[in-house]
Amino acid sequence: MIFELASLLLEACTTILVAACLLRFYLHYLKMNFVPGSGNPFSHFLFPLTNWLIDPLRKIIPFGGRFDICPLLASYVLILIKAMILVALSNGEYVDLHLPLIALFNLIDLALSGLIGLVLVYALFTWTGTNSPTQELFYKMTEPLLSPIRKFSPRVAGIDSSALILIVLIQMTTIILRHAQKIILSSM
User: Which residues neighbour 178 within 8 Å (Cβ) at sequence distance 6 or greater?
Assistant: First the structure.
């Protein structure tokens, strides 16, 4: 029971931190301003939640370009540390040598789950039509993913089905990656 409670707490904390780092990476990739005071609804919690982890990495990895590697590396390190702690708590005898690969697959899985969350929130906003700054932010985050799908997706009774198609594609990708993970790990 203690292990399950510790595992749940560790999983929740790690997921929140990793999701914040991944969101920071994605917003930077989209060239969206997310510094405090920018008007971005995420700016109030994104920097305080991630700076303590990303700033030390910036001293090692220079910042620049469209791809900010530090949030990705921070996400990966958090997931790897979580996996190592869980292995140590569960049996304490050895550290699995497959943990770096498992952590990579877990990071990809979490990123894909986050994308599904973004698309679902965007879809809810489009149904309510509130025209808030938060709705505009979700539109900017999902539009690069949905616009290529809209070119070939059918409109059913005037309703845009691109969000549903994207969610199904992401879920298919998740299933393929899980099977690939099993195959790779079993061959090692």
Answer: 105, 109
Amino acid at 88: A
- CA distance linking residue 11 with residue 110, whole number of Å: 12
The tens digit of pLDDT for each residue in 150-185 reads 888 877 777 778 899 999 999 999 999 999 999 988
**Tell me: the pLDDT tens digits for 38-50?**
777 777 788 888 9
* Cα separation, 30 vs 78, whole angstroms: 23
Amino acid making up residue 69: I
Structure-block tokens of residue 115: 């994308």
Task: Return the amino acid letter for 39.
Answer: G
Residue 156's H or E segment, with its range, is strand 155-156
